[in-house]
Amino acid sequence: MNKQIRLAKRPEGLPKKDTWNLVEEEIPTIEDGEVLIKQHYISLDPAMRGWMNDAKSYIPPVQINEVMRAGSIGEVIESKSDKYKVGDYLSGWGGVQQYVKTNGDNWYQVDPRLAPLPVYIGTLGMPGMTAYFGIFRVGQIKEGETVLISGAAGAVGSVVGQIAKIKGCKVVGIAGGEDKCRYLIEELGFDGAIDYKKGNIYDAIKRECPVGIDVYFDNVGGDILDAALSRINMHARIVICGAISQYNRNVVQGPSNYLALLVKRARMEGMVVMDYAKDYKQAAFEMGTWMKEGKLKSKEDIYEGIENFHKTFLRLFSGDKLGKLVLKVSED
Amino acid sequence: MNKQIRLAKRPEGLPKKDTWNLVEEEIPTIEDGEVLIKQHYISLDPAMRGWMNDAKSYIPPVQINEVMRAGSIGEVIESKSDKYKVGDYLSGWGGVQQYVKTNGDNWYQVDPRLAPLPVYIGTLGMPGMTAYFGIFRVGQIKEGETVLISGAAGAVGSVVGQIAKIKGCKVVGIAGGEDKCRYLIEELGFDGAIDYKKGNIYDAIKRECPVGIDVYFDNVGGDILDAALSRINMHARIVICGAISQYNRNVVQGPSNYLALLVKRARMEGMVVMDYAKDYKQAAFEMGTWMKEGKLKSKEDIYEGIENFHKTFLRLFSGDKLGKLVLKVSED
Description:
Two copies of one chain form a homodimer. Chain A has helices spanning 47-51, 126-138, 155-166, 178-187, 201-208, 222-229, 260-263, 280-292, 309-313, 315-318; strands at 2-7, 20-25, 35-43, 72-79, 89-92, 99-102, 108-110, 146-150, 170-175, 192-195, 213-218, 232-240, 267-270, 300-304, 324-328.
């Protein structure tokens, strides 16, 4: 049988247990040109919360009773396709379920001998791509600049910071809790770390970024975005990648310090990773090389069991995880 | 004697009568290298409100007891300078006073035979330059795009809209009251006008910009900025030129729809006109040519008497004026 998580109803605020239904259905049978994939890992990402709202966005909302949309990685266990054979590993939008069939469109093959599977939905997957294109194309970092990152211990932020270090920037990360801050500095080589749960965030940014901020990579929004705006330099770039502090609110808190953009002739710009699809390959090659050279570390926080989807998903918002949040859904 | 308006104390919210002192002092005597200017017109601009706050900005605040900073235009009535002779007309930062002496630095000569003097502090002065560089360099308009402008009947907005029309854009202006809206369409050739005092601004923008907004030029901030964000197109540019609705508030209302930047991969960018000083001449030439050809209309709303400074200044915030607000301070 194929266990699936389907959207039961649209949540107000934080999703609750009855937001989802765990259902079982027959494992799909495939037609000519299709493959059947046994999914090993599901990617849990903050963006998923947005897809659950009945609102126009960059992607249609998940419909009620639909399998919850998610990135995933799995193994071909049956093939009627010329493209992929049994034993191939594919990554794509498989959704929160154990099996999925596809004609292979929008799936791409990965090599489990080059990196562990979860890395392909983390640093070498969407979060890594988001980091790479966000910091280069939108952030336009230059050597010697100060880069501040919120959600810095997360799947995207941790990669952003390491790339900025590789490129010769001074890198400061904001994260929740001492452990994460220690991780940023001791494991990832950040120059500074700010625990937003402790003390005044404005003071902390001033202390850690004494010459101001050239690039702010924002994953969280809210008060932290305002605090960052208060310290931007001339011609700063603010990359709007996400706003996890706001996803469960009915009314979004707008940045009341946005007029710093005027004073500092600065720019705030949004990004969506899908726009860079044609360059994923080149980015994955470059990041893979950095990983081999030991310059870029990938960290996944892996939980098990599709029936634990709900409580694992909530770790995105409680911050109770480190690096890329992954759910193992296959049963051996 | 030289009548002057000096800053008496920093206002909370809207300036009151006791924010200012009207004082008289001796007309200054000039030294070698200096000229004495009899000021004819003072420019009244929303930005002046910001200069009154004791806050770091792109320019130092006006100090208590200092002559209020303002752009101005006047005639040289005495000269010990090689650069300028009696009878020359100069524009610069003369402040709110009737006479000023200067060595000529940061002043530039204008020709009253080519355009009436007030035009040189309006369409051919800072507001016109702001419009020109804002819509070209930051807004990056392209033919066929939809351009929405707030404060559209003002000194900056009215020029922005006319330039965008010249460049083949569809132009919609937001202004307060039927008269201003009629003026935008009938006098300035805008394609649409929205009276923000009447009806729902979200509905009105949807009606007037049915295919969305490519460039939004914001002079007002607040709810109108949020409404504009709700209708931006992919890769839209939002020019943050000012936020007159917020200048008298203690806490600025941040744009709660700012995540539209992410969804639409759009950009919000601030600007300050001084950055483009080296290209003013070229811009003035181009705009002067458009004026001669009848493609660009300049509108000044001129009030008289330095003693009326306070109540005239408040017209910036009540909206009770049309086009560039100017105060005539010379006595004939």
